[in-house]
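request received
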Amino acid sequence: MTGQDLVLLLLGAVAVGAGVLVVTTRQLVHAALWLVVSLGALAGSYLVLTAEFVAWVQVLIYVGAVVVLLLFGIMLTRAPIGASADLDSGNRWAALAVALGTAAVLVTVTVMGFGSARKPVEAGGGSAEALGASVFRTWVLPFEVLSVLLLAALVGAIVLSRTDVGGRAGRDGRAGEEGG
Amino acid sequence: MPDLLVIVLKLLAVAAGFAVLPLLIGQAEHKVMAHMQGRLGPMYAGAFHGWAQLVADGVKFAQKEDVVPAAADRRIFKLAPGVALVPYLLVLLVVPVGPHGQVALDLGPGLFFALAVMGVGVIGAIMAGWSSANKYALLGGMRVAAQLMSYELPMVFAASSAAMAAGTLSLSGIVEEWHWWWLPWQAVGAAVFFVAGLAELRRPPFDMPVADSEIIFGPYTEYGGLRFAFFLLAEYAGILVLCALTTVLFLGGWRGPFLDTELGWLWTLVKVFALAFVVIWVRVSYPRMREDQLQRLAWAWLVPLSLAQLALTGAVRVLAA
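response:
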């Protein structure tokens, strides 16, 4: 086991541990902050695998934007200091089963697909140049399909939030008052 | 072992810069504001021109009692000033001050590193706002979050324009590629980057989150003594980082009229401090923007302008190639 493997394992442990804390902590805002730790450890794992561009974009998008949006949403609705008694969902056993099932499927697929195959990690393999070249040459079609999907989501969000264009919500008096 | 020595020396230089330059900006703010607004207060301490005002402020902060509100979330409350301050120190690591490797850490995607880490600093202010258990602090924290979400996008777009123009994400690489005709070509991007950066630092006229006439001091209301001083230091370090990034991306970094190689660090510092002067100047001359004006400026002006700049940069690159 090399030093790289060790660091990757440690970062993975931090990511999983913080992820478990996200769903088990009884304090709502602490859950969002543990998510920062988990996502940060994930970015660290990318760094160890030399995917530096992905790592920093992960921090920029997930820590800098998504978690801030989550915190904003929590603070806008309710953000009590201290433990909340009603955070436990009745579905937690079902959720645990789904989580374990997903993990089992992913691990099985990875092991069956790659087995004990090894690929040396080389510096620059995940640089912005290498990534850009493969995304815009080899994988340009999936990339474009994804961008159409995102565009559809954007248009959907605009339609949902604007009550003055089309749809039954626009003619509904109360929905019209809330918009604006 | 000379490599190790070089690394240690570079880290020491960055630490020294981080310790000294934000204080210089703070001192400049005292003096510039005093002159522009006829404020007599900061002109007395230590006799000549009130040079000891900053020292006196420091002594005052260090003497104050360290209070944590009873209802606060103690751990998060104590952690927040560090989360606000440390990211700016990390950004300074990748800012080139001169040619030929005069940078502590020459990262390939250095631009994305700087933007990503700056975004983390804002979480410190949000943590402070929430953990203080004070409704004004909570309102301030929410305003910080809303402001970050609207201004992060134009800032990243404008920075991407400089990266596209240079064809690299490395900050030293961008300065290497810089030519004087970038000034008119990237002017819109530079303005958008600087304005969005001011908003991300919550500097006037974008200081809704700390509007003292409405919500006392926003997220920092419950802080006092050294922890409060850390937040102030984070603000000045933020100004330093924003001005340094604007210099590197849009103003040619260490390039100057003569002796680029020998005096590169001086040109960088001159540009950084000229921009810092503009930051202070804007503070004393513009009234605070209202929340709806803030959001309108971001979404109706800065985002379209930065997209237009990106399109222009792309078109010129393709036509010139």
